[in-house]
Amino acid sequence: MTDVEGPSNESGESSKPTSKEDKESHLTGIYDLVAVLTHKGRSADSGHYVAWVKQESGKWIEFDDDNPIPQREEDITKLSGGGDWHMAYICMYKARTVPM
C-alpha cells in the first residue's frame, strides 16, 4: 500500500525516512514525559499556570513567570492537584528511539 508519504509497513506507519535521524533510528513505542503544564487554583476563572520542563541533561526546571526553579524528578509525580496545589493540565511526551 502506498500513501502520500510513501509506502507503509504492517503497523500502518510510513517507512519512508524523513530526516537523517529517522534513517539512523526507529521508534520503540515507549514515551518519556518531557513537560507538564499545571494549573494552581480552585477554579478555571482564577489561578495560575506553571510549566515544568525536563532539560536535555535530565534535570527538571519549574518555569513560574520569569522565575526558573530547579526541581527534583520525584516532585513532578506529585503534580496531581487538588485545592491550592498544582494540577497537571497538559502532559507532553517524547517518543523514545533506538539506533538501527
Automatic annotation (TrEMBL):
Residues 8-17 have a biased composition (Polar residues). It comes from the Eukaryota. Residues 1-25 are annotated as: Disordered. The keyword Protease applies. Keywords: Hydrolase, Protease, Thiol protease, Ubl conjugation pathway. Gene3D superfamilies: Cysteine proteinases. InterPro entries: Papain-like_cys_pep_sf, Peptidase_C19_UCH, UBP14-like, USP, USP_CS. This is ubiquitinyl hydrolase 1. It comes from Salix suchowensis.
